[in-house]
Amino acid sequence: MNKSSKADIDDFLRRFRRGLAALPADIREDLVKEVQSHFDERLIQEKLDLAAFGSPEEYASRFLNAEALRAAVTRDNPLRLVAVLLGRVRATFYVIFVVLPLAVFEIMGLALVVTGFCKPFSSGHIGLFLEPDGRFGALGWVNDLGSMREVLGYTSMPIFIFIGLLLFWACHRLLLLVARRELALMRAGR
What we know:
Oligomer: single chain
Number of helices: 6
Distance between the termini: 32 Å
Order of helices and strands: HHHHHEEEH
């Protein structure tokens, strides 16, 4: 190992210690010493690969999560345990209830744009369709019209395209906001 590798280890440990700032000082220092001891052993064996540990902040977050879970279990506080477990599933919750719906609406926006551009090729099957009694029947591309009639004509083309682009743009902007927020949280070590 050369000096830059030793400097990399020192930088890793410094950032790891900073990532553990939420822990009590004695536990934090014990963990840093343990990791440093592990690094020293691997350094002697010439088997140290810092990349295998991920970023120091991510590595520290594993210890923080484990300590929070251990504390919640040993203190027998049901509310704290629920809070810790919910924190662990936050990422899953985010994906299911925020990212996936936004992605679906983004795809729907693209589908509206494509449908609008297809109007000249299948004008009788694309548009806003009403039942014979005036109730809403369907919107978009309909193969089996039955007794429904299309009411917008070619004005549905720019409407579909505009609404589709607007829906796609809005969902894409929201997804970008979600991604930027998650990146900021990752950088902050949470």
